[in-house]
């Protein structure tokens, strides 16, 4: 069976996404195309590179979550975070996760998006050649004020999509504002540089990204995997505060940021055609930046992901 797949971002909550993807694979699903934001892009990249259930579990087993918040020198708690925020606009470098993903992808034979090209197979007639890839990574260009769908939008920077690093694109997508250092994307022709942050700022759950636009019937379904809570009850599970209490005025800022991350997608989910193809995982037990989560919680989140898949198909008609 085939299905396109869209994976929501949400930091550590994304461990549940791994469980859902494993559950889908164990049901016999393969994914011609897969899109993801932030941690969803991490899982999506591994699956697009051809990881099977064994390889996906192995890759996640080699990820040391406690190393993901990688401090810059002098590597002193709070001091390093404060220095990084003022000098690099992000508390942590984010290099550990990018380097881990790069190694895992290379082991699967993937380095650049050129390794993830797909041949046309009854595709949407409106798709351009630079949209024929197995993977789409969502990021936010805060210089130009627009969503980036990589590799689809590299042409806007006069860059050859086939030559761009998959791990670099995922690193851009996971740049949680203030938490991870933002990334840059430079146009070699104009010399203009954009600052790029987490795709969740504009689209954390782009479940419609693979929908046909040529009026023809879809060849197979698109499923979305959602890990973020509905608002307002999930407000405190979304915004990372680096373990520091927020002064009252910043509570308003927190709500603005959370709404930017989740509000647009939550409104979109009110449409029956979106909710009906969405696998929703209960991840309330963990926050998006709780990288010190214990092994028991990791297994619980994976179990929740599998349970969500079972519940989703149990509710399907027929």
UniProtKB/TrEMBL annotation:
Could you tell me what this protein is called?
Patatin-like phospholipase family protein
Q: Where is the active site?
A: 38, 198
List, for all copies, the residue spans of the domain called PNPLA: 5-211
One Pfam family this chain carries? Patatin
Q: Which UniProt keywords apply?
A: Hydrolase, Lipid degradation, Lipid metabolism
Q: Source taxonomy lineage?
A: Bacteria, Bacillati, Actinomycetota, Actinomycetes, Pseudonocardiales
* Position of sequence motif GXSXG: 36-40
What InterPro entries would the database entry show? Acyl_Trfase/lysoPLipase, Lipid_Hydrolase, PNPLA_dom
- Motif GXGXXG: chain residues: 9-14
**According to the UniProt entry, where does the motif DGA/G sit in this chain?**
198-200
